[in-house]
Write a structure and sequence with these properties.
single chain, mainly beta, four-stranded antiparallel β-sheet, two-stranded antiparallel sheet, globular
Length: 105
């Protein structure tokens, strides 16, 4: 899995030091989380998971409980593009997939 991050974003040192990350699919019902993640300045000094139901994946990383898909990844490469973004390449170490009920048409 390849993830891009804006250079200087508050998440950069967290990724660098932890060497792991989790990815979750967020649906339209997760408006609060989407709003918190869309503005990086809100991350400073606040727990973005405050008030959001989370669960721990197999390796202990947090994931949004209502997410239909969650991936746990280990960083295997960091690519500095010498531009405004950088890339993190992660090897998927575990995943969680839930069946979603589809609304009748």
């Amino acid at each position: 899995v390849c993830v891009s991050s804006r250079c200087g974003h508050v998440i950069d040192p967290v990724l660098r030091d932890a060497r792991v990350f989790s990815l979750c699919v967020l649906g339209p019902s997760e408006r609060v989380m989407l709003r918190r993640l869309s503005d990086g300045t809100l991350l400073r000094g606040m727990d973005i998971f405050d008030g959001i139901a989370i669960e721990r994946l197999q390796g202990g990383l947090p994931a949004v409980a209502s997410s239909p898909v969650a991936l746990e990844c280990e960083i295997v490469r960091h690519i500095d593009l010498e531009a405004d973004h950088q890339l993190y390449v992660g090897k998927i170490t575990s995943c969680r997939v839930r069946e979603m009920m589809q609304a009748a048409c």
